[in-house]
TrEMBL record:
UniProt function note: Catalyzes the oxidation of 5,10-methylenetetrahydrofolate to 5,10-methenyltetrahydrofolate and then the hydrolysis of 5,10-methenyltetrahydrofolate to 10-formyltetrahydrofolate.
Organism: Inhella gelatinilytica
All copies of domain Tetrahydrofolate dehydrogenase/cyclohydrolase catalytic, residue ranges: 6-120
Pathway assigned in UniProt: One-carbon metabolism; tetrahydrofolate interconversion
UniProt protein name: Bifunctional protein FolD
Binding locations of NADP(+): 165-167, 231
BP-aspect Gene Ontology terms: L-histidine biosynthetic process; methionine biosynthetic process; purine nucleotide biosynthetic process; tetrahydrofolate interconversion
Molecular function terms, GO-annotated: methenyltetrahydrofolate cyclohydrolase activity; methylenetetrahydrofolate dehydrogenase (NADP+) activity
Reactions catalysed: (6R)-5,10-methenyltetrahydrofolate + H2O = (6R)-10-formyltetrahydrofolate + H(+); (6R)-5,10-methylene-5,6,7,8-tetrahydrofolate + NADP(+) = (6R)-5,10-methenyltetrahydrofolate + NADPH
UniProt xrefs under CDD domains: NAD_bind_m-THF_DH_Cyclohyd
EC number, as in UniProt: 1.5.1.5, 3.5.4.9
Amino acid sequence: MTAQPIDGNALAAKLRAHMATEVAALAAQGHTPGLTVLLVGEDPASQVYVRNKVKACEAIGMASRLERHPADMSEAALLARIQELNADPSVHGILVQLPLPKHLNADLVIETIAPEKDVDGFHIASAGALMVGQPGFKPCTPYGCMKMLEDIGCNPRGKHAVVIGRSNIVGKPMALLLLQASATVTICHSATPNLAELARQADILVAAVGRPRFVTADMVKPGAVVLDVGINRLPDGKLCGDVDFDAVKDVAGWITPVPGGVGPMTITMLLQNTLEAAQRRAST
Ligand code: NDP
């Protein structure tokens, strides 16, 4: 079998075009959705990420602002700036780019963002809402994975989903979203024995490990949907996922490539969360 590719770029473009019309409708009522991105320091990868986020906002008509702060910004100053943004009605979403310089307590910084503006979905209130199935912001990468399943007509209900990875930003929320969608979910991590055997039972297999080509063809059930979250830089500079794409595509039913799979969906769902934040505010 040769798997069908799940084209993240195409789905992202479709969703963003739809969002642009909703943004225009909100703007016409005086509620242009606004995202403020805070970058502290000069981490080169972070600079690229924040630029892409701001550009993506602008492309669909959102108001976006990038604030650059020096690497030695004090924690008190950063928290005070976030409080100001919390109180600013033109700002619907606040994103603090991670990682932060070591002297800043990332947990405290994230908890200072008002939950109704936590468009990254990393605040404890967002995590709690996801845990108990209440409305809140879903972390963008797993939210994007769920959109991909929906787009290919894969309803997780009654399926066995195996998530490899248990981070707070990908693995755990991914597992919770799949559970919410009535999948039976297995979460694997570095202390899981028989990981390959568990992975082989998956109708939906999500790899969020951070190890190039970790998932090999013998770990995949024929016909499974394989979502590859991993983004790894190889010594030759090329990007590579956590799944051995060339071998797994002959076993899986559906598979996301890297690049061009889950990656473009992450920023798309950041836009979606910002739009939802503005819609909620407009309706209050
Ligand atoms: P983390 O490093 O926070 O988590 C990795 C997880 O993988 C951990 O739970 C770890 O287990 C598990 N793991 C590591 N090695 C093994 C192993 N040998 N066997 C089983 N489990 C293992 O990474 P993230 O969740 O933040 O990211 C995962 C990948 O996704 C990375 O490549 C990252 O770059 C990418 N990513 C991509 C995004 C996108 O937009 N496409 C967004 C975010 C991340 P344990 O907890 O036991 O240590």
